[in-house]
Structure formats: C-alpha cells, structure tokens
Batch of 3 targets.
Target 1
Amino acid sequence: MFHRDGFAVFAISLMIYDVTEAPCSRDEFECAKSRKCIKRDQVRNKLWNCGANDTSDEDKPLARCHPRSEFRCRGNGMCVPRDWINREVYLCADGSDDGGIRGFPCIQGDEFRCPTGRCIPRSKVVDGFKDCPHGGADEMAESILQCDVTKEYRCANGRCIPREWVNNGLRDCVDGNDESILMTCNDNEVTCGGRCFPRYTGCGG
C-alpha cells in the first residue's frame, strides 16, 4: 500500500486463470455461445433460455429424446418429460403431448397407467394425492398394485414404495410404519443402519 497526498493507493495484482467449465450433464443442454447448461425441456420452448445473443436453444431441436423418460413434440421437436404426457396441461406448443395419446407405452414394472393414458411412477399409487386426471383413479382401491417384494415395501394401505425409502427418516407410508420396522434384507442387498440397499450400489445408495 502506498500513500500519496493523503489518499491511499492500493497496488493490486490481477491473476488470470484458465478456467475450464464443467461439461453439462446428460439431462442438460449446453448453449452454443454462453456455454450455459439448461434443462432439456427448455429447448424449443419458445423462450431464449441461453441468455443474450444466444438463440441456440431455439434454433433447432435436440438430436434425440430419451426414449424412457421423454416424449418428442410433433411440431417443434421439443423433448418433454414423459410424466407430462396425457396430463391435460400440455408443454408442446401444438398440444401433441395431450389429448389421450393412443399406445403411449408405460414402463412395465415402474409405472401405472391412468385411464387417460398418463403414466405415473408406481410409488404415486394410493399415496394420498390424485395424480390421474378426472377423479384420481390412482387413489381408488381397485388400483392397488401387487408390490414386487424384491425391490418394494408394501404400506398398510397397499402403496408400494422402493425398499430404499424404508427407515430413511421420511414418512412415505400414510401411517408412517415404514419408519418403525426392522427390515430383513434380500440376498442381493446390503444392510446399512437398518436400511437395505442394492448390493451393487452399497450403503451409499
């Protein structure tokens, strides 16, 4: 620090680092100019999400949509999460993700098909919230599923939740009994603090 005429003048040294930005994840889109990472469903949604002077998110659709988790809009090619299909609140500008898409496949063993054709995760069936449009068929007694004991725990009301959710500190069953039981792990699982995790992931889940 130097003093001159009663004013303090600071000598500041600037160091410039060559910073390499981390690549965008599989579930993100990398903007061409700004290098910003945005969600895949923000591409071709009629909004410039990449920032000023970067329209790369609206110039062209993604090369491909993830077949197990996304649906491609017929008009502009936008990839929308499959959870929004047949939800009666459409994301596609042309509404092609709504209106009862015939033959849209739900993932067997992982999802439940609503009468409208919407696919929801099995864990949302009889969870206390109506996820199916027009009456909430997922909350009706006849919709109760047969739980897969190798990967699911059955709540008293019939809800099937992933076995990893048991004793995780959160009440996933309506009566909370998933937080007060002693789990017996399967041969393909490991015991970690009263919880069961797949053996291939270990206690980290």
Target 2
Amino acid sequence: MIIEDPTDPAEIGYDDERILMIGDWWQKPHSQLENETLSSVGFDWKGDSILTNGKGLFQGACSSPGHSLEVVTVDRNRRYRFRIINTGTLHQLAFRIAQHRMHIVEVEGQLVEPLEVDYLELSPGQRYSVLVTTDQSPGDYWMNSVPRYLPMDNVTGPSILRYVGGVETLEAFDLPVASSLPSFPLEKNNWVTAQLTSKFSARRPMPSQPDLTLVFEIGSSINNVSFAPPAPGELPLLEYAYQRRLPANQASRWIDLGNNTVVDIVLQAIVNDVGICDSHPWHMHGHGFWELGSGSGKFEDGLAETPAAPVFRDTSVLYAYVDPEEQGRLVEGTPCGWRHIRMLTNNPGLWALHCHMTVHVMKGLAVAFGHAGGLIRSVGSGLSAGTFGCCNHTTHEQSAVTDRQGRISVSRILRTYLLHHPTS
C-alpha cells in the first residue's frame, strides 16, 4: 500500500509516477522451497528468474508461450518518479535504465537530498524513489535488473521503457541478447548509502546519545541463538510481553527495551559455520532507525563519524567485507563487517528485527523486542503463539490498526500514522 503525500509532486518536482516491483523467482512452489530449506536437502540459493511487476521470461522446462516482459510507457520530455521496490526473497538487485540517469529522492518513505546515480542497488524489502527525465529520442530502451553479491548463473531481469509515439524496436516476447542490456560496474560494499542525507532531518531529529547499546553477532545465528516462536500450547509472545514475562525457551525470548529509550544497535557480521560471511538486509518492524555508518572487520566506537543528516529508514544492508574468492574458506567467528543504527522506542508493542532474506528468517535470524507492555493489553488475546507483529513495511502501531480478530482497519492505520508522524 502506498500512501500518497499530495505535496510530493511539487516538493520533489515530477509530472507523473511509475511503480516497478523487481524480485527473484524460483520455478518451484513456495511449499517445496520451504520444505527443502528446513530439511537436509537445503535451500536452492540460485533463483531461476528476475521479474518486473510480476513479468519475465524463462528459458527452460517451465517456459510457457505467450508470456512477455514488462513494458513501461512514458511520454517524452516529462519527469517521472519511479517507485522501485525489491519484492524478492533472497537477492540484492541492481537496476539500470539505458541512456537515462536517475536521482534518488526518497528512501523508504523519507525524502532525501537528490543524489544522481546511473544505477540503483536495493535488497529485499528496500524501497527507493528516483526521478527520471524522459529526454531521449522517442523509442524503446532496455531496463535491466541483475543480482549482486550472490550469483544467479547469468540470470538477468530485462524490461522495456517505451516512449509513446516512438518506433517500437524491442521485442517483449523474446529474451534479449545479454550484451544488448545495460551493464553494471563491479560490486562495491555500501554502494552510495553513505552519501544519502535526509532532506528534512529537523522534522525527525536524531537523539544525540544512546541510553543503551546492543551488539548482535550475526553468523549462522544471532549471539549463538536462533529465534523460534513459542511452542504450540504456550502463550502468544505478545502476551508474554504484556505480562513482562519471558518464555522458558531461550530461543523465544524477547528484549524489553523500555519506553522512549534511545537504543544503538550494532549489527556485527561474523563468518558462519560453513566459512562464509553473508550480506544481510536487516528490517525493523514498527519503527524506523537512523543509519550511522558501516565498515569492515569488527566495530569499534569512533570508527565512523555520525552523519550530519542521517537517513531514517527501516531496512539496511549489513555488507560482507571479504574477498569473494575466499568465501567458504574463512575462519568461523571472524568479524567481517558491521552496520551501526540508532532507534527510539516510541511505538508500544512487540516487534521484530530480522534478516529480510526469507531463508535466513526461517532459520531464526531474528530478534523480538518490546516496550510499554501496559499499552498493548487490547491485543493480548486471540492471537497465535508465534505472533509478534506484521511485516508490513510501515511504522504504524500494531495494536492501533487491528481489532481482536486481527482485521486491518485502514482508518485506524491513517489515524495512527498521523499520530506518530504529525509533520510528515
């Protein structure tokens, strides 16, 4: 769901907008992938296709006639806002439009100072808005999405940008020759993340000092614990939070952060049990956070300067700062990259911080945190044992947007949004 800000066209400066949802795709049922992930078979780490708005072409046993690439139509000499969303399961993707530059203007709902780039890079769960000026000769132009940091055996995700009234030179029903598609530079940890700055940081000022700092070492688990929901027959996790109690199983426990607490979180990557340092997109429910920096090796205070206008977002990539050729031969437990973020616990409830790669969250790369237990009484019953909030890519209060049966109320969403974001 996209909530339109009526001031955005004038504030940002664009004539119209387009939405592009890009993501990886497997030619297997989800149930089969899930069963393989949790069995000795293991997860299939290489997807079969990259889709754009649900469209793509696959050459293989599962290919079907009549399918086509996505075609996005535009008028010449106009400025478009492209809302680009990685809806995938696993792969971080790079996106590029042939012969068109892009200016990043929004990151996960927050306006940023325009930053010119020739390609975009986004992980599962991340959302960017870019401005694109259609000032080229009328015709067709390739758009392309490719995997980053994790290969897919030469899989690409082509789509077509088509000027209305131009000559249609590109074929949407055939996979193009790879050499005709926009290419990309070598992978670069942290991409341009450090260059992004908030446009209206005064509207959401970042607290200057933390009250609490948490360090999560992330390899095959988090601090040697893989999260698991309470077992059948136990209380819902949300009810444990309301009662300020902890489940007996350590893997199901939540962290009480207190209300209106400024919390610094250090996401510290370490080499996992198969000698690999993974990149992870970390997503926070119910809150956003300010990005403070990232780097290689082990985090130490003072490694990076605090940005003057840090971006407030909800999904951030923990990069693997290692030589790709050494993956699989690294020493387990070795620090190999970090991400530093800051949050304010101002949205009562029980929430998750988790890796947005589905296979990783299924294996327990998640933590639950909560605060202000007395304010979540109204949703303390009628929920399943595993409930601790929805992954809805918003900063809305769970207890305020659902009734006792868990039904979503759009009016409550809007009221809660205005309550927590009066200046946005």
Target 3
Amino acid sequence: MDRFMDIYGLNTTSESPLVFYPNLPDYILYLTVVSCILSLIGSLNILLAYIYVPDIQNFARKLFVYLTAANSLDNFGVIIGLIRYFIINDDTRAFVGWNSIKLLDICVFQALVTSYAPSVSFFWTTMIAFYIFMQVESPKTAKAMSKNSCLLLYHVIGWGLPAILCMVPLYYDVYGENFSTYTGPWCWIRSGLTRKETVTWMFVSVKGWEFFTYLVTAAVFMLILWTRYKKKRNPFTVNDASYNSLFPSDRFLMYTWLLLVLLRLPGNIRLALLLNNPTGNYPGRTLLMTIQSTLDASQAFTNFVCFFYFEKRILAFLYRCRCKCRDKEKNYGTLMNA
C-alpha cells in the first residue's frame, strides 16, 4: 500500500472508503486475466459465426453482435487496468521509467473505457429487449425498426449517448485510482472524494444506467410474457425465417438482461456493503472481490456459451465444413494415387 500512496500522494479521509487492496492475491489477477481472454475468444467466435453462417443472421442477432463488441471493449479496458497494476507492483524495476503521471493518465483512460463500455452494453441490452417486445406486440413495427434507415438511431443511442454521459465525470476529473476499494484490479471513481460525491459519480457514470437497464428490461420481459399469453403469439417462429423475424434459438436473447444481473450481482453486493459500512470491515470482502473480478469480465464468454448452446445451426455448419474438407482430402488422395 505504501508504494501506491507514494505514487499518488493520496491520503484517506473520514468520509472516504478506508480499506485498500494494493497488493491483491495473485489468484484474483489470474482469474481476471483468464476471464478476459475467454470473453475475447467468445466475442471473436460470435462475430465469425454471424459473418460466415448466413442461416443465423437476422436483425436481433445484429444487435447482439453490437452488444458483444461492447463487452469486448470492456475486456480491453480491464486488461489495461491489469497491465497497469503489474507495472506498479513490478519488483524487477523493469518499468522504472513509468512515472506517476504516466500511470495516472493510464488509470484515467482505463476508468473512462471501463465506464463507457458497460454503459454501452446496458443500452444495447435494453434495445434488444425492446425490439423483441415489438416482435410480439406489433411485428409490422418491428419490421420497420429493423430497416437500415433506423440503424443510425440505434448507433446514436447505443454508442453516442453513453459517450456523452461518461465524458461528464471526465470533465469534472473524478476518474482515477480507487485502490480496488469497490472494483477489481482496475480504476474507476478516484479516492479522496467524499462518500456522497463518490456515490453520486458512480451512479452518473455507470450504476445509474445499470439499474435503469435492470428495471426497464425486467418490465419489458414481463410485458413480453403477458403479450404472448394474451395474444397467443409466438415471435420465435420457424415458418418465417426472414431477416426481420426471430428464430426459435433467439429465446436466449430474452434472458440477456438476467445474465447481466447475475454476473454483476457480486459487485453490487460489495458496493452495498461498502456503502453501509464505509470502513470496509465486512466479512467475505476478498471472496466477493474475487467473484466480482471474475464475473464482471466474463459477460462476453457467458453470451458466447448461451449463443452456441441454443443455436444448433452453427454446429451443423461446422460439421458440413468438416465433411467438405474430408471429401476434398479424399478426392485429392485419389488423384495422387491415379
């Protein structure tokens, strides 16, 4: 902790969180790294599957790909935070040229990325839920929503609005080192602020939009179930396999918000405990931090597992490719022996 405090010259106050995690257990770092790598691999597989398997392409899947891109961006931000942590705690002095100003700039940049990317994923999750609801309530409206002319509006909401929201904390210089008090091994809202200021900026940058997403998507989910029951309409149809329809395997998209809630639950529990006890002396804090660091970085991997589990046509496509390769090898061998 002394080296962290020496680098940034920060001191705790009675109104600031008092527990620091400057020397984190190695297993937290390793689990976070593994989680990020698996998520990036999962994101790449989702993208490749969408591009090279035409049978699975529809508008809902396109929105899902954008959600995956946001999760990947978050993983890159976490990796930046991990690299910075390793630099600060490097005992070999290999990074002696990295002064506190460089490290603080990296910290602020990483905090901006890891605030922006989750906010983007929240907005895309909400738009996916709303689009599925319109498929149930009014298929004609959903078809109009899936036109390319409307796609610009989706991008403005999904990418542009979170950028504006995350620039506000940057303008007020509240991003920075928090010594993993309420995050994993990465930066967010800096230490040195009062408790009220810290909570306010948490909600302005990420948490407010996170809880807003939970409320909206849960309400939309209930409306989808009610509308399906009332109108006896199943939007996940096989007969209309067009770009504007939903596939039976798109059912998992209805539950992306629930996965989001579960994966981010440890971090929210940890934040609630910290707000209730600013000294941070609550039981199981290291365990909660370990789970938070692992799950927060695993959203893309979780989506990948669900996507490939429900979408059987991807496996069928890979099987056909394998059979074609075998046939080519067999034909090539026959020609060589002729």
